[in-house]
């Protein structure tokens, strides 16, 4: 749906229709960076705007939007990372099996043909990465490492008789494999299969659910891979096993399990329990054997109704003591005491120690002061709170710094209506434009005349002008007054 009050439209960029967001709170201590979303909607819901990759400022104004050519395509895990010492943009692109249109894979799984893209700060694709060994590039994770390799998740339906687990005889198990790949060559450097290391009996997802998705049992549903304090170990989240794993790469061994049926820790207190979690990340603690694991704790839901007593979804930080093998609550972040998020979600610690949360399969993203809050007082330390339209979601949400210098020129259009001429100027993705200059061409052999200077406002700046000829050009200036982009010459449109 592109014609809606909840969708942006621009005179100078008529091909772009990103969703509008409603910013409900924006405290002065909110982090000053930009916000990165991959908006989409499930196939049985109305989608507002085009799917794609979207950068916004804190006021909800678009900064850059890369729309996808089909509503069946989507981008996820859109964020800023480092590659070869420089900031880049990365995301997964493909088709996701969303309700009710499941095809040959379980709900929320990536369809074959998916891949990952790396873009430089001019918004050109510099690498395309795909999973190897016949696996599908999975929606959940694409992490660039300090060694300029990529850790990613991948899936493959493996034939298996599931009757011993209560599933179909002619069934399959959705294997999740972690792959480490050299993005420059697509060479496979490391491979680890959940099916080879995690017993199927550890799953909380009933094998009988396979009958609703092509007889494929989504027993594991790994959904994040992260780094740890050791270059040899990675942190892995298994949504459908309620477990976070520390895996040693050289041996493939699971060093410990946090949560789930084979939990190796004493989890202290009900507030430290979690289930159906996403986006597990390792943080260095205060020293010694004490470290921290953060996650988005969905706590729900494999049914249309939330079971009574289910805690609200929230960001969760746990102190992990690998000497005493105990896990305890460090802090938590609630947006509402009644918000239950059925899937997805992310938790990001920002450079100023604020915590930014994407609320997954709900329309929200928010930022909190570091100390967090409780379910009884969710407004405490809430600094920023925004809402996407209706059933639009973003798998994860990020807040980060980004400098975009597009390789393409600014866009402009001049329109005359009711005796007033207005020049509309925009430059999709330029973070450095501060001022627009409008020039009028009075003759072919005469230099153009500067007729108006205007401060950039939002994505598109409307500049009323008075001119003698119907030919115009705009130039973008940065904060130092330098010209950083020039549009093509445009001809006045009369309406």
TrEMBL record:
Pfam families, sorted: Arylsulfotran_2
Top-level lineage group: Bacteria
Name this polypeptide is given: Arylsulfotransferase N-terminal domain-containing protein
Species annotation: Methylocystis bryophila
């Amino acid at each position: 749906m592109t014609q809606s009050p909840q969708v942006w439209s621009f005179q100078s960029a008529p091909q772009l229709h990103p969703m509008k967001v409603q910013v409900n709170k924006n405290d002065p201590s909110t982090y000053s960076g930009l916000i990165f979303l991959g908006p989409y909607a499930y196939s049985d819901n109305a989608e507002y705007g085009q799917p794609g990759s979207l950068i916004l400022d804190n006021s909800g104004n678009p900064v850059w939007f890369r729309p996808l050519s089909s509503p069946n395509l989507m981008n996820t895990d859109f964020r800023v990372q480092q590659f070869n010492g420089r900031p880049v943009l990365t995301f997964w692109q493909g088709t996701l099996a969303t309700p009710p249109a499941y095809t040959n894979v379980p709900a929320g799984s990536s369809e074959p043909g998916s891949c990952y893209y790396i873009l430089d700060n001019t918004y050109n694709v510099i690498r395309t990465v795909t999973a190897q060994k016949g696996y599908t590039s999975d929606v959940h994770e694409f992490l660039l490492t300090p060694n300029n390799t990529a850790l990613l998740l991948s899936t493959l339906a493996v034939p298996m008789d599931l009757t011993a687990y209560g599933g179909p005889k002619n069934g399959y198990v959705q294997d999740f494999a972690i792959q480490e790949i050299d993005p420059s060559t697509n060479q496979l450097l490391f491979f680890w299969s959940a099916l080879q290391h995690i017993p199927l009996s550890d799953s909380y997802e009933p094998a009988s659910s396979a009958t609703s998705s092509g007889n494929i049992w989504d027993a594991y549903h790994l959904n994040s891979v992260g780094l740890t304090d050791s270059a040899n170990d990675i942190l892995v989240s298994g949504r459908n096993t309620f477990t976070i794993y520390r895996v040693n790469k050289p041996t493939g061994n699971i060093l410990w399990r946090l949560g789930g049926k084979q939990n190796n820790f004493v989890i202290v207190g009900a507030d430290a329990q979690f289930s159906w979690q996403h986006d597990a990340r390792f943080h260095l603690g205060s020293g010694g054997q004490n470290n921290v694991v953060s996650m988005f704790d969905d706590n729900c839901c494999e049914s249309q109704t939330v079971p009574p007593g289910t805690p609200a979804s929230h960001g969760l930080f746990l102190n992990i003591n690998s000497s005493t093998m105990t896990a305890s609550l460090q802090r938590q972040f609630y947006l509402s005491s009644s918000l239950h998020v059925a899937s997805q979600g992310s938790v990001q610690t920002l450079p100023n120690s604020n915590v930014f949360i994407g609320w997954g399969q709900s329309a929200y993203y928010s930022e909190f002061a570091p100390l967090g809050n409780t379910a009884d007082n969710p407004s405490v330390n809430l600094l920023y709170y925004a809402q996407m339209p209706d059933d639009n979601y973003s798998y994860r949400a990020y807040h980060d710094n980004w400098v975009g210098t597009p390789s393409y020129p600014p866009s402009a259009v001049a329109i005359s209506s009711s005796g007033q001429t207005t020049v509309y100027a925009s430059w999709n993705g330029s973070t450095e434009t501060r001022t627009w200059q409008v020039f009028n061409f009075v003759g072919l052999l005469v230099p153009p005349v500067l007729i108006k200077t205007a401060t950039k406002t939002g994505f598109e700046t409307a500049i009323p002008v008075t001119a003698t000829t119907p030919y115009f050009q705009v130039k973008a200036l940065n904060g130092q007054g330098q010209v950083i982009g020039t549009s093509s010459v445009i001809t006045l449109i009369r309406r």
